[in-house]
Design goal:
With 407 residues, the chain is an all-beta fold. The chain contains no helices and 32 strands.
Length: 407
């Protein structure tokens, strides 16, 4: 798209090859003026024979030096052509007939176009510069925001775009370099922080982004790699320690985060894995002791923690379950005898313990109850003979036993 910013330039090439030849029926009126030595000094032409001069030719020592043309019939020139050794050297064109040129053409000594300038917004300042060699375009420069600074440079080889340079941050210096093969984008380099060094590089195939790598901490080392399919992000890898080892990997579906692996060791096993749905965190798995077994599982709803499953002794079996309410601990269940069933249950309000229940003989029935206030025990009830009835009660004040009731 940027390559074509000059496409709207209509080069009036016929102006570079102006001819004063006309048919007999359309022969213009010509006035010729001579200097004191009898050499031609000026000519005035009325090409359409309407009684108004619309072309002027100026001579020095009998040689054509300048030519002016009035294309809109207002009596004022809007095309100026300058000659050197009777060959066209430069041409200026007023395209909107306001009396000021918006196009400038420069020819080399072979008569081929060497430069072209344009004032695209009609503010009487050049904002597009085009350069040619042997009449073929080699470079274009543009001030696309009209602030007087060149912020876009295009390079051509064999009239094909091969490189583009841009000042995307409007800092007065180039910060994005784009490279092309067969006029298709293949690579981009970016200076994100404006320090003059390349921080991020993008790679393309068939003009679709396939990968990028980035130096995120400005130490001149690549530490972030991103991979794309059909232009969508599918995987990202990071070296967070700067040791050359990729210790975090992120996976995406439809450009939404699906899974993150953290703390990846040299064998490729992660310490923590995060799972996402619709871009939201739903599950977290941890191998805290790196034995290859998941020993901590956290479940989320709307990215808020609701449940945690924990293997407290690293035997490969979950033995503690945590339940949360609005992100705060509400209940803890513990399996102390490793039978897969909770035998101690603790209840919380505003993250303060309020009640505990226990199955001391592991028969699946609660036989001890403890009640707390402000984190201190107030009362405890026990079914000591496991008949389903409370047969002993203990009462506490400020955490100290003050009374006992039996029967």
């Amino acid at each position: 798209m940027i390559r074509n910013i000059w496409s709207f330039l209509f080069i009036i090439f016929m102006l570079l090859n102006f001819s004063i030849g006309f048919s007999q029926e359309e022969k213009p009126k010509v006035k010729t003026f001579y200097d004191e030595e009898g050499r031609i000094a000026r000519q005035e032409l009325d090409n359409n024979r309407d009684g108004k001069t619309d072309a002027w030719f100026y001579y020095v020592d009998g040689k054509l030096e300048r030519q002016e043309e009035d294309k809109d019939g207002d009596g004022k020139p809007d095309i100026w052509t300058y000659y050197l050794n009777e060959k066209i050297d430069k041409q200026e064109v007023d395209t909107n007939f306001d009396g000021y040129p918006e196009l400038w053409f420069f020819l080399d000594n072979k008569g081929s176009l060497s430069r072209k300038w344009k004032d695209s917004n009609k503010d009487r300042k050049v904002d597009i510069w085009t350069y040619y060699e042997d009449g073929r375009i080699v470079k274009q420069e543009g001030d696309i925001d009209f602030d007087g600074k060149k912020d876009l440079i295009l390079h051509y080889k064999n009239e094909r775009l091969v490189k583009r340079e841009e000042d995307t941050k409007k800092r007065g210096k180039i910060d994005l370099w784009s490279y092309f093969e067969n006029e298709k984008l293949v690579k981009e380099e970016q200076d994100i922080n404006g320090d003059g060094r390349i921080d991020k590089t993008y790679f393309y195939e068939n003009e679709k982004l396939v990968s990028s790598h980035e130096d995120t901490n400005n130490d001149d080392k690549i530490d972030l790699w991103s991979y794309y399919r059909d232009g969508k992000l599918v995987r990202r890898e990071a070296d967070t320690k700067g040791d050359g080892h990729k210790d975090i990997k992120s996976f995406y579906e439809d450009s939404k985060l699906k899974r993150v692996e953290e703390g990846i060791d040299l064998s490729g096993r992660p310490k923590i894995v995060y799972h996402y749905q619709g871009g939201e965190l739903v599950r977290q798995e941890e191998d805290r002791n790196r034995d290859g077994n998941i020993d901590n599982i956290l479940l989320y709803e709307k990215e808020m923690l609701v449940t945690r499953h924990f293997d407290s002794d690293n035997d490969g079996k979950i033995d503690v379950w945590y339940t949360y309410n609005k992100g705060k601990i509400a209940k803890i269940e513990e399996d102390t005898n490793k039978d897969g069933k909770a035998d101690i249950l603790s209840y919380y309000q505003e993250e303060k313990l309020t009640k505990q229940e226990g199955d001391t003989n592991y028969d699946g029935k609660i036989d001890i109850w403890s009640y707390y206030k402000d984190g201190k025990i107030e009362r405890q009830e026990e079914d000591t003979n496991y008949d389903g009835k409370i047969d002993i009660r203990f009462f506490y004040k400020n955490g100290r036993l003050i009374r006992e009731e039996r029967g």
